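INFO  loader      accepted 1 record
INFO  loader      residues=283
INFO  predictor   begin
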Amino acid sequence: MATDDGQPAGRHDAFAPAKINLTLHVTGQRADGYHLLDSLVVFADLGDHLSLAAAASPALHVSGPMAQVVPTGPENLVLRAAARMGVTLDIRLDKHLPAAAGIGGGSSDAAAVLRGIAALRPDIGLPPDQGLSLGADVPVCLRARAARMEGIGERVSPVDDLPPLHAVLVNPGIAVSTATIFRSLARKDNPPMPEILPGWGDATALAGWLAVQRNDMQAAAIAAEPLVGQVIAAIAATDGCLLARMSGSGATCFGLYADTQAAGRAAASLARPGWWVRAARLS
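INFO  predictor   done
INFO  writer      dumping tokens
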């Protein structure tokens, strides 16, 4: 429903889950500088919470444990998403995900705003580019379910046969610059994942397959911030860890486990001062 001036009526609550790159293959770079990727992406059952309502002028109110790292000016992706759709919103963002962390916090927030606008204004719907102009991760975050992301982020294919996945997410409290990591890559023409992804009977089978895939940004991130390597080693040393890897360009890393109990025990053992540690279910 919309008001007489075309603005959405009512208030809409939205959830913006953390995005996890189980794989991240950098397969090329276009002449315009954009990098080509091939990534298996999943989403956690934890994230940020947003509430949207029509307003006379754009407004963003940020609260939550990670509020201090969020810019509140027009450069913020949630305000840009609303502006992109020609809608003026009062947005309340309850921020729980660390910023510049490789788990798509800003992109997932922007995707949640786009979904919210589509719910409030079905006549507008979603943008034709699925939010790509806002960022490479926004189209996959619009789906917010397991998917394969290719190209510069514009090709998103559902992956519907993943087994139940339990994980621990760890961010050591440092920010890693995606642009810096891309510039530091030793090569940018790495092989993609197989054209046809296999089936996986359980988390152990998936982790075994993932072990021969890659995050092509991980080595460069460790070179820039050695603490990332220490986090991966700490996760890998926990009981029952099936795989430890970095997500995105870092600095958040993850471990996969066979069940929620193992993930919970690992999360407890990884608690460190200044570290953000959460057990999660991925889908």
